[in-house]
Write a structure and sequence with these properties.
Elements (H helix, E strand, L loop, with lengths): L1 H8 L9 H10 L5 E6 L5 E10 L3 E4 L11 E2 L2 H15 L4 E8 H11 L5 E14 L4 H7 L2 H15 L4 E5 L6 H13 L2 H5 L7 H16 L3 E8 L2 E11 L2 E9 L8 H16 L3 E3 L6 H4 L4 E11 L4 H25 L12
Parallel strand pairs: 3-5, 10-11
Antiparallel strand pairs: 1-2, 2-3, 2-4, 5-12, 6-11, 6-12, 7-8, 8-9, 9-10
Helix pairs in contact: 2-9, 3-4, 6-10, 7-9
């Protein structure tokens, strides 16, 4: 059913709503995952969602820290609302749905579908992801950037070229994809992420998730693995995904030994150039509003985590909305009151 599912996913083009990602995530997940489907009489899928159901905790969207988006795919508003109603029935009698990483249209849709049924919503978190609309040419994109950014980009590239032969390559037929994926993963694990234990290779399950996703996306022509090499050595790499008019940055990394040369900046310019030349009209950075993204981005796209509850679970909503923030403020106040003053602060010289 992958083909008909991905047709629906193109309405809100994100890698995390496609079968390339969802099948890999299904195999990666430690909790039982199920797919809620709405089919036409002929069997064609017209809406669906991937969820996890826990008898005492209700329903939660099948997503985690690796998933930049989650939501219902649907052919239209009627079909989408039908899936939301099915999810409320799945959550019965608990009456609790945890909905991660919803964009603004999805937030509006779920509220309009569930509020008439007595659901109350609490926003648990929000992440504003930078994005940029892409013009018809890379020159036009640079023309719209700041003079300082253009100057830094040129200087960084020339500095790297003075050290050796600088090449930009897209993973493809020149060598096996698996080899380039492993080079990407090793580079990501070589820096601070490896030291902190958050690199993809730090977990066999997570490594399998990304290997499976990359292989499926490559087979479907949607993977964009861009490699920046200096004399053949990998110094920066992007793992991106293209569906519909949008290219989405999934993961990026660089060799921290070359940090002073700013290989990430050079790679970002090349990634945007490639997206423009391929015909993408949007580039979504995902993640939070990091400085390296904001210098290019023209907008912020909020993703929200919502808790939808009714019945006895409204007690949890009241706790999260009212009591928990007050306890947090009290904790911070007590910590500040008991912390010794720093030298120079009291006379204003700190």
């Amino acid at each position: 059913m992958a083909e008909s599912w991905d047709v629906l996913a193109e309405a809100n083009p994100t890698p995390f709503a496609t079968c390339d990602w969802l099948v890999a995530w299904w195999q990666y997940a430690t909790r039982a995952t199920q797919c809620v489907l709405l089919r036409e009489p002929g069997g064609t899928i017209c809406a669906g969602a991937l969820v996890q159901h826990r008898p005492l905790r209700g329903v939660r969207g099948a997503a985690d820290v690796h998933s930049g988006d989650w939501g219902v795919v649907a052919a239209g508003e009627h079909e989408r609302d039908a899936v939301w109603r099915q999810l409320t029935e799945l959550a019965h009698p608990v009456g609790r749905l945890l909905l991660p990483a919803l964009d603004e249209p999805a937030v509006t849709a779920v509220r309009s579908a569930l509020e008439p049924s007595g659901f109350h919503f609490v926003e648990l978190g929000r992440l504003d992801s930078p994005a940029v609309g892409l013009p018809a040419s890379y020159d036009d994109l640079l023309a719209g950037a700041s003079r300082n950014l253009r100057s830094q980009l040129g200087r960084a590239r020339r500095a790297m070229e003075r050290l050796g032969t600088l090449t930009v390559r897209t993973a493809g037929p020149q060598r096996p994809l698996a080899d380039d994926i492993e080079r990407f993963l090793r580079l990501e694990a070589s820096g601070w992420k490896g030291q902190e234990g958050t690199a993809i290779l730090g977990s066999p399950r997570t490594a399998r998730l990304y290997r499976d996703f990359a292989a499926a996306a490559f087979a479907n022509g949607r993977l964009r693995l861009l490699l920046l090499e200096l004399d053949g050595a990998l110094v920066a790499a992007d793992l991106s995904y293209r569906i519909g008019p949008r290219t989405t940055l999934v993961k990026t990394t660089y060799d921290e030994r070359y940090a002073s040369l700013r290989p990430g900046l050079v790679l970002r310019g090349e990634a945007l150039r490639a997206a423009v030349e391929e015909g993408s009209t949007e580039y979504d950075f995902l993640g939070g509003p990091d400085a390296y993204k904001l210098r290019w981005a023209g907008e912020l796209r909020p993703r929200r985590q919502l808790l939808a509850v009714r019945g006895p679970w409204r007690v949890e909503a009241a706790y999260r909305e009212e009591l928990r923030p007050r306890l947090g403020r009290l904790h911070r106040w007590l910590g500040s009151a008991m912390r010794p003053g720093r030298p120079g602060q009291e006379d204003g010289s700190g």
